[in-house]
């Protein structure tokens, strides 16, 4: 493995990679001929915030599988371009949570006690004690918008100061909020009730400009606002007007729409504290994010575990261990079902049953799509859903916690083309053995492994014997022979049957032609799946 560390990292971060035998690590000061040239044969890229990882740079990195950002924001990384190329983009949310929370509390204290004004006055030789009468945090209501790791760390510290805590976050459970002594309220009530308002949400269409003229109008007179999250959360003009009218008693801003800000009007306000995006800038936090991203990148390269990915849902190590056998099964099932499909795929239906329905199945979905599309283009578990979308293939997923038959977890795939519909389902036995359970509505159990002949035939005597004879004549040994038959009806009096034959050795074109021309055999195809 070759890892390129494009920016300066701590010795502890570097050590995570150096501990791996045979891994080559290139640090920022060892890059002599440009980053693009260094990435030509690299497997991973680690950056902070300075290096711009754009589409052009990624074009020169054909082997890179993972991009690690030592920090939270990924504005310097073209995640869409990375996704198209099958690269995981990871960041390190929460590694600097304590640092951000401590600065937030510090800014609240500084606002309440007018510390910047006091400091400036003292440096100027002034003793302005009477004009610096402040207010305590004790007994004040703190409104926390966003109850992720940082928001909860802020709550933990604010509680010690005797503050009343209210919060809003639609993605946090009532149990988590209750444990942190936070009263969950609507965003409207959060704005109405807060004496101090602190922002800890990411930038989304819903949160952009959430602090605006209308929301400020609902706030208490004298509210104080702290923003250590994203500058785009606040409409600057609205906050400026509120400061001028004393609707807002003070603000502390660590982030800005444009960084660094140019000719900021906030600099003229004594009750506004401005810091240069330093919330996560502590020695401890920088060490923590570096080590964390190194460990995440290492785990992905060694074991395929995706953590804190911004272009793919993440799994903990335990969650990955739970779904890992089904990833391989899903890819093999998709490959098997899609290998001889007629027509153009229009949609894919995926149904997860049993325990699998209760797991995080995004990677399982991508593995299935990877298998289905594996015959047409380069696709992997990162870009599979993106490739399907680009090709106009609709993907529909359903979950049913009820087990099917005796299998604990089952994946069913239905492919719709402009010509036919094909379906198959599979499970995993003994933790590592993918098994086909059903093909086009016919129960048939076969291993999803090795070289498989897929045969469709009339349900009449003699067909199985002919298959064996033809294989023997072509010196191909049978490792496993699975049969399945449909229910006979007045519409299909002869009935139809399926055979999935696992064989040793190569299946030649002549062998396939011999099988297809045999009496009673309607269709014959071959697919080779990865070994277990």
From TrEMBL:
Gene Ontology terms: biological process? L-serine biosynthetic process
Catalytic activity from the UniProt record:
(2R)-3-phosphoglycerate + NAD(+) = 3-phosphooxypyruvate + NADH + H(+); (R)-2-hydroxyglutarate + NAD(+) = 2-oxoglutarate + NADH + H(+)
Question: Molecular function terms in GO for this entry?
Answer: NAD binding; phosphoglycerate dehydrogenase activity
Quote the SUPFAM superfamilies the UniProt record gives. Answer: ACT-like, Formate/glycerate dehydrogenase catalytic domain-like, NAD(P)-binding Rossmann-fold domains, Serine metabolism enzymes domain
The answer to whether UniProt assigns keyword Oxidoreductase to this entry is: yes
- Stated role: Catalyzes the reversible oxidation of 3-phospho-D-glycerate to 3-phosphonooxypyruvate, the first step of the phosphorylated L-serine biosynthesis pathway. Also catalyzes the reversible oxidation of 2-hydroxyglutarate to 2-oxoglutarate.
Query: What is the name of this protein?
Result: D-3-phosphoglycerate dehydrogenase
**Organism of origin:** Acidisarcina polymorpha
């Amino acid at each position: 493995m070759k890892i390129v560390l494009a920016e300066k990292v701590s010795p502890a971060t570097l050590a995570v990679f150096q501990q791996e035998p045979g891994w080559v690590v290139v640090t920022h000061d060892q890059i002599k001929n440009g980053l693009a040239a260094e990435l030509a044969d690299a497997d991973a890229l680690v950056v902070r915030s300075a290096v711009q990882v754009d589409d052009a740079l990624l074009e020169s990195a054909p082997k890179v599988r993972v991009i690690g950002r030592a920090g939270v924001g990924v504005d310097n990384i073209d995640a869409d371009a990375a996704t198209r190329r099958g690269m995981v983009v990871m960041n390190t949310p929460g590694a600097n949570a304590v640092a951000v929370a401590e600065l937030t509390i510090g800014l609240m204290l500084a606002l309440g006690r007018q510390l910047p004004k006091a400091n400036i006055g003292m440096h100027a030789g002034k003793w302005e004690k009477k004009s610096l009468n402040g207010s305590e945090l004790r007994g004040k209501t703190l409104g926390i918008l966003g109850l992720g790791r940082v928001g909860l760390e802020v709550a933990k510290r604010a509680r010690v100061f005797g503050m009343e805590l209210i919060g809003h976050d639609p993605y946090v459970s009532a149990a988590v909020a209750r444990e942190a002594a936070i009263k969950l309220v609507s965003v409207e009530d959060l704005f109405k009730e807060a004496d101090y308002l602190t922002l800890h949400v990411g930038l989304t269409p819903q949160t952009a400009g959430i602090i605006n003229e209308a929301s400020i109008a609902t706030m208490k007179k004298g509210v104080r606002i702290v923003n250590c999250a994203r500058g785009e959360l606040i409409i600057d003009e609205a906050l400026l007007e509120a400061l001028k009218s004393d609707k807002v008693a003070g603000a502390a801003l660590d982030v800005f729409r444009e960084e660094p800000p140019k000719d900021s009007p906030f600099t003229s306000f004594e009750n506004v504290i401005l810091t240069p995006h330093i919330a996560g800038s502590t020695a401890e936090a920088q060490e923590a994010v570096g080590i964390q991203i190194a460990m995440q990148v290492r785990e992905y390269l060694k074991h395929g575990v995706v953590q804190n990915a911004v272009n793919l849902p993440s799994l903990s190590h335990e969650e990955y261990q739970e779904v890992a056998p089904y990833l391989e099964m899903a890819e093999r099932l998709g490959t098997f079902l899609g290998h001889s499909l007629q027509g153009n795929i229009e949609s894919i239906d995926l149904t997860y049953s049993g325990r699998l329905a209760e797991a995080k199945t995004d990677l399982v979905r991508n593995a299935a799509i990877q298998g289905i599309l594996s015959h047409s283009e380069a696709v992997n578990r990162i870009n599979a859903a993106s490739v399907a979308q680009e090709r106009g293939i609709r993907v529909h997923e359903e979950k049913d916690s009820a087990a099917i038959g005796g299998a604990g977890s089952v994946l069913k795939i239905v492919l719709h083309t402009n010509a036919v519909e094909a379906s198959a389902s599979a499970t995993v036995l003994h933790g590592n053995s993918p098994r086909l359970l059903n093909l086009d509505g016919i129960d048939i159990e076969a291993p999803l492994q090795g070289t498989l002949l897929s045969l469709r035939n009339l349900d009449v005597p003699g067909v199985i014997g002919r298959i064996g004879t033809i294989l023997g004549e072509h010196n191909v040994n049978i490792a496993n022979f699975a049969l399945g038959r449909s229910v006979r009806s007045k519409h299909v009096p002869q009935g139809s049957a399926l055979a999935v034959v696992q064989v040793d050795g190569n299946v030649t074109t002549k062998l396939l032609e011999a099988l297809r021309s045999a009496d009673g055999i309607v269709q014959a195809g071959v697919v080779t799946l990865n070994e277990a």
